[in-house]
Amino acid sequence: MSNQQKVVIITGASQGIGAGLVKAFRDRNYRVVANSRSITPSSDPEVLTVAGDIADRAVAARIVKEAVSRFGRVDTLVNNAGIFSAKPFTGFTAQDYADNIGVNLTGFFHITQLAIAEMEKQHSGHVVSITTSLVDHAIDGVPSVLASMTKGGLNAATKSLAIEYAKRGVRVNAVAPGVIKTPMHAPETHGALAGLHPVGRMGDIADVVDAVLYLDNAAFVTGEILHVDGGQSAGH
């Protein structure tokens, strides 16, 4: 097998958007390194699974080390792992805060730092993070300050890294979705959640996957926060 075949690391890969991304990248002949706390081994020899908490630097280091050892390179990193906690601000606990910071920010920091170090060796690469449209457009009745604080940090880091690495061949972008129809949203909530979007529906996993694939192929796009939110960020 040629080491020229592209390799993508996907966090939060066991279900929902992450599982959709694994399938989409495999369909495009990428080798995939898939991580989540509960991920199980894959029968596909081109999919390497690494279980563990992305907030732990040792896990992030193992993911990148095994990607390079098994497949020889890292071309794309999709920071998909994330926690979303919708509570009134004064109802958040210290554990809620630690969990959100750990996965959404610390996890991003460790895996992105280690992946970019590998990308620099080949003078090419792409990092794309999944954030949230709520950063730009808060919604009455959806109390989500920890999501906005942590994912807003990712949006800011995306632009900063894009400029820092623009001349080194590494692009950095983000996708900011609205509410996506995944297993985390019970079917009985779908009607109310659809109403949060001007287009009148929830997003599908394919909507986010298509946005990530676009950015991965868009060689002249870096520092972009691509809203995939049914018009949420435009207004109501």
From TrEMBL:
Alphabetic keyword roster: Oxidoreductase
Q: Name one Pfam family in it.
A: adh_short_C2
Show the InterPro entries listed in the entry.
NAD(P)-bd_dom_sf, SDR_fam
Q: Which residues form the signal peptide?
A: none
Top-level lineage group: Bacteria
> What are this entry's molecular-function GO terms?
oxidoreductase activity
Q: Does the keyword Oxidoreductase apply?
A: yes
Q: Provide the family line.
A: Belongs to the short-chain dehydrogenases/reductases (SDR) family.
What this protein is called in its record is SDR family oxidoreductase
Taxonomic source organism: Dyella telluris
Source lineage: Bacteria, Pseudomonadati, Pseudomonadota, Gammaproteobacteria, Lysobacterales
